[in-house]
UniProtKB/TrEMBL annotation:
This is Ribosomal RNA small subunit methyltransferase G. It is found in: Cytoplasm. The keyword Nucleotide-binding does not apply. It comes from Agromyces tardus. S-adenosyl-L-methionine binds at residues 72, 77, 123-124, 138.
């Protein structure tokens, strides 16, 4: 079963390079236990690499050495994939659900990741206000509600790096008020993986201004 999940080797090698073995170990663990732990749906298994793992890994070049928070890590997407890909970055995975936190902690131990801490909390209840250089999130909520829970965690001048679907432009329009309220600037949508990956990754990136 696991063999069928192996990626197109060239795509995976391009995206993960020397970190491919670590990413592969995580993906195999997720394929084995993800469904029984309620981390991924049964339909996701055949497209674990294309839709989830490579999709997450494409974001790695946008991160800078520093402290990155991943809000709503769930199964570890993109947080654990990025932590494997970027050992030069410190990651704080923020996830409120106990069972998911246990999974994340177990993976951190099994993969021997020394650049990850896991915080069990909702983003708005952490003590991380203004302390992170960048914040990532994937499949947590629309920008209109996601920005108010992620932007306060970022230091002034830091960035939101939020993974989004094809409807990102509409989400930006609906979020205009909170974009102003949280003084986001240099707002852009970056499309990653064109010509490389089966599915492109869209990122809403914005710099966070001084707190409102
Ligand atoms: C649909 S899952 C997506 C998980 C993962 N990011 C992915 O792409 O597979 C959404 C996750 O966000 C978490 N979550 C929801 N609201 C949150 C909040 N306010 N702060 C932190 N995490 C939150 C949920 O517990 C859940 O694990």
């Amino acid at each position: 079963m696991i063999d069928a999940l192996e990626p197109e080797p060239e795509v995976a090698a391009t995206v993960f390079g020397e970190h491919l073995d670590g990413v592969r170990a995580f993906t195999e663990a997720l394929a084995r236990h993800g469904e029984e732990l309620g981390l991924i749906g049964p339909l996701e298994l055949p497209r674990l690499w294309t839709r989830h793992i490579i999709n997450s890994g494409l974001v790695a070049p946008l991160l800078r050495p520093g402290r990155v928070g991943d809000v709503g890590s769930g199964a570890g997407l993109p947080g654990l994939v990025l932590a494997i890909s970027r050992p030069d970055v410190s990651f704080t995975l923020i996830e409120p659900m106990e069972r998911r936190v246990a999974w994340l902690e177990r993976q951190v131990a099994e993969l021997g990741l020394s650049n990850v801490e896991v915080v069990r909390a909702r983003a708005e209840e952490t003590k991380l206000k203004g302390r992170l250089d960048q914040v990532t999130a994937r499949a947590v909520s629309a920008l209109r509600t996601l920005i108010p829970i992620t932007a306060p965690l970022v230091r002034p001048g830091g960035e939101l790096v939020l993974m989004k679907g094809a409807g990102v432009d509409g989400e930006i329009t609906a979020a205009e008020k909170v974009i102003r309220k949280f003084r986001l600037y240099d707002v852009e949508v970056i499309v990653l993986g064109e010509g490389v990956a089966t599915e492109v990754t869209r990122v809403f990136r914005a710099t966070v201004g001084t707190s409102a």
